[in-house]
Amino acid sequence: xxxxxxxxxxxxxxxxxxGSRVLPRFGQAREFFFAEADLVAGTLQGLQRxxxxxxxxxxxxxxxxxxxxxxxxxxxxxPRFQFAxxxxxxxxxxxxxxxxxxxLRQWLKEGDLANENQANPFIDETGCxxxxxxxxxxxxxxxxxxxx
Length: 148
Description:
single chain; 148 residues; alpha/beta; Nucleotidyltransferase, domain 5; 6-stranded mixed β-sheet; 24% strand; globular
């Protein structure tokens, strides 16, 4: 990662993964992709896989903070992890699925962190983080409740 980058326009992001895909549950994560995102240019730099060693640092959120992570993009996340990350100053956006690099590029295109005028774009007035809805919904859930 480029430690000489301008902190005003770059952010270090962690994405929990399995293989090259976004892990569905943050709480099960042991491997992450770290990426430095240039919010002004809309580019990714230094995408690399990192493994969390729970014997070295038993607290996942503290490890992410120590590694300089400023934001987490993930599939699903339990509220206790959301609050722990928020308490460490790490922003969270969840509801993603797919290939990590594709998810990061889509997120950059939408510009979630680029709007500095919002107090916290991840938390609404009720204190809850907005969920990203998956386009088309879940095919298994769309048929629930229907009778033949």
